[in-house]
Amino acid sequence: MKMEFIDKLPAMDLMRSEKMTFVQLIIPVESAYRAISYLGELGFLQLKDLNDDKSPFQRTFVNQVKRCGEMSRKLRFFRDQINKAALLPTVHPTLQPDIDLEELEIQLAEHESELIEMNANGEKLRQTYNELLEFKMVLQKAGSFLVSAQSHAQDRELEENVYLNNDYINRASLLEQEMQSGQSNQSGLRFVSGIICKSKILRFERMLFRATRGNMFFNQALAEQYVIDPVLTEKVEKTVFVVFFSGEQARTKILKICDAFGANCYPVPEDITKQRQITQEVSSRLSELEATLDAGIRHRNSALNSVLSHLKSWTVRVRKEKAVYDALNMLNFDVTKKCLVGEGWCPLFAKPQIQEALQRATFDSNSQVGIIFHVTDAVESPPTYFRTNKFTHAFQEIVDAYGVARYQEANPTVYTVITYPFLFAVMFGDWGHGICLLLGALILIARERRLGSQKLGSFMELAFGGRYVLFLMALFSIYCGLIYNEFFSVPFHIFGETAYKCRDTTCSDARTIGLIMYRDAYPFGVDPSWRGSRSELPFLNSLKMKMSILFGVAQMNLGILLSYFNARFFGSSLDIRYEFIPQMIFFNSLFGYLALLIVIKWCTGSQADLYHVMIYMFLSPTDDLGDNQLLWAQRPLQILLLLLAVVAVPWMLFPKPLILRKNHLERFQGRTYGRLGTSEIDLDAEPSSAWQRHEEFNFSEVLVHQMIHSIEFVLGAVSNTASYLRLWALSLAHSELSTVFYEKVLLLAWGFDNILIRLAGLAVFAFATAFILLMMETLSAFLHALRLHWVEFMNKFYRADGYKFRPFSFNSLPDEDN
């Protein structure tokens, strides 16, 4: 009757993955494109690649994929050009009617060639403008060098006119000899002028000095304007230089060095009149080029704006086209080359929708032959698909990060939705900190529509994806904080007056004298009088440690119970008899008994030492318990539980492999009949069972696997129970750390009669609360709760050897912006 009652219970959402069916499609060539497009819009069919033995270049629609790839490259080029031009997307993009792929390809090619031509012309104009701008700066700076050098030489000539010309020439500098009137042409002194990047000027001057052996005069001046590098499109600071030298060989060396350093050399006439004339001409040409460049930029921006208005729709269209042809490449041509054959998985509930979409594709393509859609057999296990919403999606991702559930296996997400934030809150319990978390979660939930359409950073994207996880974590933190009676580590009399008072009426506090109970217990949570008393830590440690063990035993029992429902669902009576039953007996004989003793001790107020009880249950089970006795007939009960735990170990280890070996031998000798496969998949059967996979039976391998599983469970029962003590440790650490910041920072600063010290103390307290307690402690509790679920809870029943259902869907196409 009990089993019938369980079978009649309605199915729980998310408890089992959706029932899947393996289907085959036979699609006429003329309606193949529309059929795959409609299936992509629907998003409920996972296609199997029937051409996985072929390279991408050997597939049927490789040319169409190449064309779509080329169009994607052009769209990326447009996007890069728009980003460089810093153009903002239009609020309401222009709606364009659906155009043929060939027409779109022609439009993209025309826009690309136009932009490439405009870019080339713009680069040439920019290069010419930069050269003229550099020439103008060289004329201005080099001309001033020459004028100052000439005036300096003439002054020296007037002052030293009393000396002989020969003596003067022997002692004068090269520059002064050059600037003497009537001597410049005979001396052979020349100069090279140009412009170079400021970062290279020191190395450039050093190289010139070494190449000419010091027989040169180098002058430099910083350019007044920045020059835009046409390659990097960045402003570059440059320096104008003039090198005076003598001889043709030195000139050749200097020009080679200029070329090696990327310096641009420009001729500067010595005549001041010619310099002014050339400067005026260069300035007029610069003004003309500026106008031309502005007009070119405006024309280019208008062309980019026209592209921008259609860019999003074009990108979506090309991505869909490429996805359709990639999907078509997974299909096979039949022998007549008139039909395409495809296979794949779909949820059972989606079969009518898929059939309706295929019928619509046949009608829209005017095909005379309909699409054949039928269910067939499959060798491999079906994929796992859970229908989630925005609330349950984050919890399902937490579970899937450990491993994807086997097909139709019990899904831990059903329980993780509650247990995960609750265990987090046990470690994080403080209703002040919980309110801060709640505010953050509510902000993310209130702005989810706007934030969901934006590109977020890695941390913000993680927080936004888990906004509902944060929401429940905050609610449970407030609940546990009320139980612990902690608001930023400060207790409050929220639910009434305290039940304790000082033992001595003369005491001012309860730090040395102790507390006595004089009225009924505090209605809800921890009594605020425990705060600051000498027994605060022993009381809270005892409470939280025992509470952690109770939570751990309850959650692990739930995991073992779920293994029973898995075995019952898949019809595996061996797993129920030789795994579930001995596991329950072993675990509860030891740790279930410990949890029972904790509850009895709380209810009776006994002073029994549970450490002593559990240790001597193994060391001396027949000894008298004395003051540690909590139950009638406790000693024989402990002996019985100990014997049951010892018997449960071989019960888990040996019977299942031996029975499997016996069944295999009987089947091999023909004494029993194996199960026959049907034309359709039995959706209630275990997909990894022997009749589907036809694996060879290896007794030694089965025995070793069962041995490992049994030893892991026995040792894990101890280590996993101890692992739940992290709930106590982290809760205590969070409470004590919060107390330290409150008492040693905020209260200490508030004790000074100085507003600056108080503000500084408040700032330090706020910083520590935000970055240590609300960020680091949140992350720590999050990871520890994650470990408790992955290791301690889910390993009791969760095999996690499945694979996700990944249907062909336009909604799941990767974004090319990433």
UniProtKB/TrEMBL annotation:
Transmembrane annotation, as ranges: 422-445, 466-484, 547-565, 585-602, 637-654, 755-776
GO biological process, alphabetically ordered: vacuolar acidification
Localization, UniProt: Membrane
Primary localization class, coarse: membrane
GO cellular component, one term: vacuolar proton-transporting V-type ATPase, V0 domain
Membrane topology: Multi-pass membrane protein
Residue stretches in coiled coil: 101-128
Highest taxon listed in the record's lineage: Eukaryota
Pfam families from the UniProt entry: V_ATPase_I
Molecular function terms from GO: ATPase binding; proton-transporting ATPase activity, rotational mechanism
Keywords, alphabetical: Coiled coil, Hydrogen ion transport, Ion transport, Membrane, Transmembrane, Transmembrane helix, Transport
Family: Belongs to the V-ATPase 116 kDa subunit family.
Task performed by this protein: Essential component of the vacuolar proton pump (V-ATPase), a multimeric enzyme that catalyzes the translocation of protons across the membranes. Required for assembly and activity of the V-ATPase.
Name of the featured protein: V-type proton ATPase subunit a
Organism of derivation: Protea cynaroides
